[in-house]
Amino acid sequence: SLNYDRIYNLGYYFDGGTLMDEENVLTSEWGEYSPATKISVFNYDVKLVNPKFTLTSDTLRYSTATKIANILGPSDIVSDANHIYSELGFYNTQIGQAELLDRSVLTNEGKRLTGDSLFYDRVKGYGEAFDNVIMTDTVNKNMLTGDYCYYNELTKYAFATKKAVVVDYSQGDSLFMHADTLQMYTYYLNTDSMFRETRAYHKVRMYRADVQGVCD
């Protein structure tokens, strides 16, 4: 059932309902809509379906004017390319950009990027993480840390700076390398075999049980 409060100019439902606009379909158990502000609040089993992704949440605020979804509780954004988990932030469903807080996580083809805050651009295919950043690659068995990290899911290029450290554990003993700036490349060289390359710039320190190195 749909109820309308004429005094506060609010429409709401409390036993399941749907809100639709030209881009998104939102469903939840409880919902409230303000025609004056064009802002909706949804609770319990919230689901936003867009042709390019699906967002599920416990609590969500959505503007039909700006197409921005404010994440206010545990939420998952799933597309063909990746998976995002966040408990606080916003996602612009029209231009495909997200700004996320509280250790949100971006996962793409075995790579997992997390930080105190994240920025993600779905159209351009890249993510940025800020402060206490960790990017793990379970497929290639390495980890990149720092206070800033950039990752392009289209080119598989990663960049880290500000206390940057890379750890490679693909060969048994872990290899640790620190530098002011670290860059990681993935390429194929006209074959089916994948090649990975890490470049370190300035104040480089490298350590493994059987090898150590220092350079600038």
Describe this structure in words.
This protein is mostly beta strands. The chain has 2 domains: 1-72, Lipopolysaccharide (LPS) transport protein A like domain (lipopolysaccharide transport protein A fold); 103-216, lipopolysaccharide transport protein A fold (Sandwich). The protein has strands at 3-5, 10-13, 17-20, 25-28, 30-34, 39-50, 53-63, 68-71, 75-78, 83-86, 89-92, 97-101, 105-108, 111-114, 117-121, 126-137, 142-152, 157-168, 175-187, 195-201, 204-208, 211-215. A 10-stranded antiparallel beta barrel has the order 7-8-11-12-15-16-14-13-10-9. A hairpin with a 2-residue loop joins strand 13 (105-108) and strand 14. The radius of gyration is 22 Å and the shape is elongated. The protein starts with a strand and ends with a strand. The model has no long low-confidence stretch (mean pLDDT 91).
Summarize the helices and strands and which ones pair or pack.
Blueprint: E1 3-5, E2 10-13, E3 17-20, E4 25-28, E5 30-34, E6 39-50, E7 53-63, E8 68-71, E9 75-78, E10 83-86, E11 89-92, E12 97-101, E13 105-108, E14 111-114, E15 117-121, E16 126-137, E17 142-152, E18 157-168, E19 175-187, E20 195-201, E21 204-208, E22 211-215
Antiparallel strand pairs: 1-2, 2-5, 3-4, 4-6, 5-6, 6-7, 7-8, 7-9, 8-11, 9-10, 10-13, 11-12, 12-15, 13-14, 14-16, 15-16, 16-17, 17-18, 18-19, 19-20, 19-21, 21-22
Protein name: Organic solvent tolerance-like N-terminal domain-containing protein
Pfam family, one: OstA_2
InterPro entries: OstA-like_N
